[in-house]
Structure formats: structure tokens, C-alpha cells
Amino acid sequence: QKVQRTFLVPNHLRELQKASNLLYNDAPWMPHGDFKETTGKSLVHDVISNKVAEQLGVHSLRSLLVGNASMNLGVSLGKGMQSFGQHEDLLSRLGHILEMYPDGPGILFEMLQNADDAGATEMSIMWDTNSYKTNSLLSPNMEAWQGPSLLVHNNAVFKDKDFESIVRIGQGEKLDEVLSTGRFGLGFNSVYHFTDIPSFVSGDHLVIFDPHVKHLPHIDANNPGLKINIASSNITEQFPDQFSSYKHFGCTMSGSYQGTLFRFPLRNEKTAQVSKLKKGFYKPEDVDHLLEEFRKQAPELVLFLKTLEKISIYVTAEDGTPRKLFCVTRNIKDKTAWLSVPQFLAQQSRGQFLTKLRESSSLPSACTKVEITTECPGSPPVQESWILTSCIGGGKSRSMALEGSNSQMKLIPWAAVAAPNFDTKNFTGKAFNFLPIPVCLTQLPAHVNGYFELSLDRRDIWKTGNMIGDGQNKARWNEVLLEDAVSTCYVNLISYATEVLGYTDAYYGLFPSVLPSPPFDKCVTSIYRNLASKKIFFSNNKWITLEEATFVPQGTLAELSDVLLREKFPITSAPQFILGMFEKNCEQKITRLTPTLLRNSLIRIKAPKYALNFEDTRVLLDYFLNAVHPQDFPGELLIGMILLPLASGNIAQIGSRESGSFYFIMPH
User: Fold this and answer.
1) Which pLDDT value is given to residue 510?
2) Contact 241, 133 (CB under 8 A)
């Protein structure tokens, strides 16, 4: 036990001083001349051991240096106030979060989401296989965490509110930030699947979390971590080994760092045994698998992100230097159009946004092409082309977002849709909340993105069921968002595809072919209802609406279609599933080509005799003669049509037996 009385103890000059004014040297790597100047205290005489000095009341040099450069990560209370009330042990709380958020690449998705919310344009991940020296550490207990780690870098810098948000387990500050979708909410804490000691450097500060409260000095259960100012102190010089592991991605640990670098030292077999968070640990092959699974999904991960356009993966080579394994880059062709939507929401509180949403007579939308380029060393680049649309919903979703009863929910009627402009044989559409929602199946031939209300683990959206209150409201919001904003984007996508894809199989492949299960069924119904008035069918070198179109049945002779097109009939063709979906989901009648319809059109349009050329007449006569049927198309309907080819080469009108006119018909 420590002695409670005050002792006079000799310093290094053999002068007696109060023990509380002295330091014992537990940082032997530092030059002796630095102490008086940097701390205002002298060292205890070296014949007195550190252990004895501590019992006499002498302070730790290492602890003092760390304390001078550190600040409280907690929230202070006013005078006369004390912490009191219900609480949950931090380790227990983090353990429950790890149960909700499964291990795997989804953890890196959370880091990607946070980087995008911060406005970063690039993010890099590095599997740092190096082990670093352990002499000059903040605490001897940090030695176990100087081994291999995962580094995650982005080129944005933490703001003051971000430091405040990241220490709050839960919603953080993101409810009032319109553009934030995952800014340091529960999901960030999934990094404890990797480590017991997550840390990061950004701007002027280094932050290290220690929920076990056993690895760092100057921490307690109320403040289980350190925030160290590396820009205005020389602590990085005083503890060089501790900070050497951060010197990647342009971070020198001297001065302010214009970026953010997270370090997650991985649990090993030894540290996992004593961890109260998780007993599992990452072996090298586990890290390889994690990065490979992330790499497979990376080309789609950048599709809907607001600002982030490049993701890279590295591993340290045998000489300790970074070696790039993979890079994916997003190139939006019309950035001005694409940014018009996020700019409508940017730099304003939720209240300001709602006022703007209520008063705006015109809401932004965008259509553009996107190129996703994937690069791996030793292989040629792979490029994928996508069609991307985005909009702010102006119908039911806007109305619900503006309802005063929903003020506690963050309802943003922003949606987007992306469709591949390449071979889609094995393509499956997914739902996104800016990143893929793992277990949410849409049955659509395109990806859909929206500010959906998600389940707590972010693996699915809220759906209608036996719910009341908030749960019912969240499910209703998802339905409204799909029915309004998402369907509007989808309709815009198909309209834009008429320019990009043209009259092709790929174009018709964008149309939903089935009515999905709820709530996506409402989206498909709304899509087809809104498409009915759009010019989406091609005829006579122009696009026409469903009402204007006459659909030629499958199997119709090409030469008949050619004749009708030359005669400016608005005929077109479409897969049967599209016509069937229109019939199921909208009230607009579909006009199909029949002998009776064509006969009435020819008599009405072609009144002058001999208007058709000889060959076209033969094709039409063949069609009608083959269609003659006592009930469906009786032969009498041919009377009056100018379809009779004569030996003279002329074309005559077909008359009745009583007409008194007789012709010699040319052999077929």
C-alpha cells in the first residue's frame, strides 16, 4: 500500500524535496535533460527504485507526459451535479453491439459510410503485417497491441462535433444532420470485432479507446480513452515507438494531419484469451478472406455514395512498404447533375431542410452515366458502365416527411436507382441505404437506393407486420418512399435509357418482370402506372406512349411490320411480360394488332385507290387471307379494301359478287 504521509526524498542532485514534486523515470529512452524543462519537476535519485518511489508518493514521468498532452473524452457536468441514474457496463454494451452486427466485410462498409458522411473522396484499407518496437510506449500494457493491424484511411478531417459523436454509443449527432446516414452511430463500434484498442488520428488529435480500462494511463470507467493533441505537444517525440505504427498514408505524427487514419490492432491468441469483448481473433488467412469479400463487392459499393469515389486495398510487403492489391474508381459523367440532389440537402440542419422542402416549387433530379473502373496489379483494368438516376420525392414521401408527428424520425425523401449497361445475365437487383442492405431482396432488375428506415443491425428494412407506434410508422415510410421517390427515379431511368440504350433487349431488360413481395410491390405498381404516359416505345424512328402504340404479336412476319412502318402505322413490339405488367398495374388499355384493327385503319387512312405499291399490297393480302375465320375475321370484311393485285400491275378494290366488276388476278 502507498504511504499516506509526505516524505522528503533526494532528487538526482542529492537535494531533499517533497516526494510529490519529484518524478521517477519510467521513460528511460528519453534524454535526461528534458525533464525539468518539460515537466517543471526533477527526477528522484536513481538509487531509489521506481516501485519504492511510487510508494513514497513520487509521480510517474510517463504518466505525467501523457497527461499533459491528453484531454478528457467525457462530458463534464455543471457545479453541484453528479452522474447518477440507470447505466450499462460499457463492455456489456459493446458486447451486445457485436452480437447485433455480424463479423465480416460489413464492418468495413460502416467505415466506408462514415468516410462518405465526412465528405471524403477516397478511402484506403491496409493490412499492416508489421510489428513495431515496444520500448517507448504510453504504458507497458500497450505492448500487446504493437503487432499486425488493419488501417483504414480517408482524406477528410474530423470536426469538433465528430469527436463528440464518436464517444456516444448510439445515434451520435446524425439525426439532425441531413446528409449523414451512418455517422458514428452503433455501427462504428462493430470494429471491436477486430480489436480491444481502436484508435485514430485526424487533424490535431490522436484518440485511443480502451473500454477495458487497463491498457492506458490517466483513464477511468467514465473516460475510457485518451484524446492526445499531437500538433501542440512533443509527445510523439517522447514516445516514438507508440506512434510509429501510424506513419502511413502521409501521416508523419508531427503537426496536423489532413486526413483521418484509423488503426485497429488485431487480437491474437494471447490477447483474445483475456478480452472481455470477444474471444475470437483474426489469423492472417482470416484477414485475407475479409479483404477478398470486401473486394468482390467494392465496384457496387461506390455506386450511390455521395462524395466517395475511390477505394483502395493495400498489404505491407516483406520489406514493410505498402503494396497495392486493388483499386476501384467511380467516374460520374455529369457531376453537376448528380450533385444537384445532395447539394439541395447540404450544410443545413434537418429543420432548415424541411422548411426548404416545404417551400420549394421545383425539386432536383438527375440522370447520368457512371463508369466503375477496377484495377488489380498484373491484370488489365475492368470497366463497367451504369445508368444512374436520383431525385427528391415530391409526392407522398415529401408529405410524410413534413408531417409534424414524424419530427422524431429522420425522413429524407431522397432516392436513386442504378442499372447496369453491360451483360446482366447473372445480375440481381439489391436495396441500398447508400450501401447494400444485406438481406433485403427486391426482385427488381436494378439497384434501388433510399433513406430507408433500417432494422437496428442495418441488415434489412422495416416492413409491415403486427406492429404499432414507431415500428408501424417506419414500415409506412419505407412503403411511401418506394411508391413515390424510388418509383420516380425508376421511371426517369427507363426514360433516360431510351437515349442511352435505345430499342434493344438490354433496354427492355430494365422493366420489372414480376410483382415482388411487399413492400416492393407498391414500387412496381407505381412504376408501371407512371410509365403509361411516358414515351418509352419505339416506332417509325421516334418514341411513343403506351396509348399511341399498337403492339405487333410475337411471330408476326417481319415483312408485314416493314409494310406497316413504311405506311406510318404506330406499330411496335415489346416482350409479353411488359404488356402483362401494364395490364395488371394500370388502367390504360393496350392496343394489339389484329386483322380487324388493321382493316379499319386501312379503309380510314387509304381512301384513294391504288395508294399501296404492288409488293406491299401482296404482303397485306396474304396477312388478311390467312386471318380469315368465320367468327374472328369473316371474309366479308375484305370488301371495300384496295388489296386486289391485277394482271395489269394495278391494284383494285375488292368488291362483292353483286358489284358487276370482274378482274383477272395475277398468279401468286
Assistant:
1) 94
2) yes
Nine cell digits for residue 257: 494531419
User: Helix (H, G, I), strand (E, B), or coil: what is residue 2?
Assistant: coil
How are beta strands 22-24 and 59-60 bridged, if at all? Answer: parallel
* Interatomic CA distance for residues 451 and 481, integer angstroms: 8
Q: What's the pLDDT band for 172 if we cut at 50, 70, 90?
A: very low
Rg, C-alpha atoms of the chain: 36
Residue type (1 letter), 256: S
Which pLDDT band holds residue 212 (cuts at 50, 70, 90)?
very high
Q: Helix, strand or coil for residue 15?
A: coil
Separation between Cα atoms, residue 583 and residue 134, nearest integer Å: 72
Phi, psi angles (nearest 5°) of residue 267: -60, 145
How far, CA to CA in Å, does 397 sit from each of 338, 403, 493? 20, 10, 19
Task: Give the cell for residue 414.
Answer: 431522397
Using CA atoms, how far residue 283 sits from 113, 176, 197, 290, 609, in Å, is: 26, 40, 17, 11, 87
Integer Cα distance of 614 and 617 in angstroms: 5
CA distance 177 to 7: 56
Contacts of 200 (CB under 8 A, 6+ apart): 158, 206, 207, 260, 261, 262, 263
Question: 228-251 burial by CB neighbour count: b if 16+ within 10 A, else e?
Answer: bbbeebebbebbbbbbebbebbeb
| pTM, 2 dp | 0.84
Q: Are 323 and 314 in contact (CB under 8 A)?
A: yes
Residue whose C-alpha is closest to residue 276's, from 205, 218, 215, 318: 215
Write the secondary structure of 585-611 as one string of H (helix), E (strand) and C (coil).
HCCCCCEECCHHHHHHHHHHHCCCCCC
Coil, helix or strand at residue 221:
coil
In angstroms, rounded to a whole number, what is the distance separating the alpha carbons of residues 233 and 229?
6
Q: What residues form DSSP beta bridges with 311?
A: 123, 328
Q: Does an H or E element contain 223, and which?
A: none
Cα dihedral: 152, 156, 157, 159 (round 10): -110
CA distance 403 to 477: 11
Q: Which stretch, 43-57, 359-373, 645-659, has highest mean pLDDT?
A: 359-373
What count of Cα atoms within 13 Å lies in the side-chain half-sphere of residue 498?
Answer: 17
- HSE of 401, CA atoms in CB hemisphere, 13 A: 30
pLDDT in tens, 317-360: 888 889 999 999 999 999 999 999 989 988 788 889 999 999 99
For residues 96 and 31, give the distance between their C-alpha atoms in angstroms, rounded to a whole number: 46
For residue 651, count other CB atoms closer than 10 A to its CB.
20
C-alpha 303/C-alpha 516 separation (Å) is 23
Distance of alpha carbon 242 from alpha carbon 54, whole angstroms: 23
* CB distance 62 to 25 below 8 Å: no
- Amino acid at position 532, single letter: A
